[in-house]
Amino acid sequence: xxxxxxxxxxxxxxxxxxxxxxxxxxxxxxxxxxxxxxxxxxxxxxxxxxxxxxxxxxxxxxxxxxxxxxxxxxxxxxxxxxxxxxxxxxxxxxxxxxxxxxxxxxxxxxxxxxxxxxxxxxxxxxxxxxxxxxxxxxxxxxxxxxxxxxxxxxxxxxxxxxxxxx
Length: 166
What we know:
Elements: E1 8-14, H1 18-28, E2 33-39, E3 51-58, E4 61-67, E5 85-91, H2 94-105, E6 109-110, E7 115-117, E8 123-128, H3 131-135, H4 140-151, H5 158-165
Parallel strand pairs: 1-4, 5-8
Antiparallel strand pairs: 1-5, 2-3, 3-4, 6-7, 7-8
Helix pairs in contact: 4-5
């Protein structure tokens, strides 16, 4: 992931059309660009080689688009609807990640891969700084190990992700 000055950035959820949508958005607004793109690998959950995330700017504002599939898969899932907005929080340490996670999860609902919905219904994705380095690692085997490790987690564990990537 591109290091952003923003601690919290908008995350836009798509079924599978993030690349098309982002290309349209950056063509409309000045001072806009695609910064980074990651793809799913054999570990899933998306089709290997398909776009997983796109980091982009519109008028200098950082965004992250994700192809997360249908919000109805699996049944009862509370992921954001197609085109829905969630908030992505990047944490520098496990202690910070634990603090943010624990406070936001209190009275809310949790899901795997660092996702939760707070007691007010807002969707959040709490991730460590450098998450894109794990999931977008140039070595396909390391990238796949990181994805497999993340898919087994609820709250993300920075050391476990690091170990999986090494």
